[in-house]
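User: Quick sanity check before I run a bigger batch. Here is a single chain. Can you write out its predicted 3D structure?
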Amino acid sequence: MSVYLSLSAVKKRLFLNRRCRQIDTDLNYAELERATLIGANFNNAKLFRTNLDEANFSCASLDSADIRLASLYKANLSKANLNKADLTEAYLLEADLTMANLTEAILRSARLQKTKLSKANLQGVDLSRMNLTNANLERANLRFSNLIGANLIAANLKRADFTRCESYGWNIENADFTGAIMPDGEIYEPETSDGELYQPETSEKLSQKVISMTRKIIRTDKAPAPVGPYNQAIAATGTMLFVAGQIAIDTRLNDIVYTDDVAKQTEQVMANLEAILTEAGATWLDVVKTTVFLKDMNDFTAVNAVYGKYFDSATAPARACVEVSRLPKDVLVEIDCIAVI
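Assistant: Done. Predicted structure follows.
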């Protein structure tokens, strides 16, 4: 049988101020509506189905707290620490999470419409298929986050950082991306070529700009795991760029360099690939597939060590590596790539 605690009963258990020690009290189902809990330490607290409507948790610490199915309507969680907190199916409609730390927080099926998340830290958080209609995410840190299928209709996304986030299928109708850093690292420019003031664009128009930058990492335990800085597969949409195989030619000399050093040749090959990507307006982040050709497979480790400096293993492109009997000009390594921009 569930036990419901009133605010007065809870206060008898807790000393609610900034010097409050870590709370180990079971507050599941408690009634804390409009409670003032500024700066309190709720690390690891049990707040399952607790009523926290309009409660003031400003600057409070809720690290690893269990807040599943809790009601936080219009609650003040500004500057709160919610690292690793479990907010599964929490009701956060119109809650204030300005400057809150939500790294590694679980927000599965949480209600976030009209929530204030400006300057919040949501790095790496799974927000896939979340309803963030009319949410305020201005200047929020969304680096590496998962926004696949998220509903961002009419959201304020000004100057938010979406670097390397996954955005496939998000709904961004009438969302404001003014000054935002997009998934490929580019800053979104809202003005027209005539310098006219920005008007929120339709989902179709903005998607033409954003989806072209979209890439999704594919992973499955039903196939062998990568043994180097690459991924099993990449799903991407946009303009495809096919870069021809590059070998260790130094354009300043117009000749092959480091004929007996495969690591040095690999560095030159990567420099040549980078020059072509840059000319096309692409970066290493846009590369989705590479093929490495080796004269001797025993050089794999040395080549891999250089190659790995150019890619983050978590987001690296798919790759194939093969040994061939001979390469152009008797080089030791050749690499080509495909990018999506």
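Residues 15-24, 200-213 have pLDDT under 50 and may be disordered.

User: Great, the batch can go ahead then.
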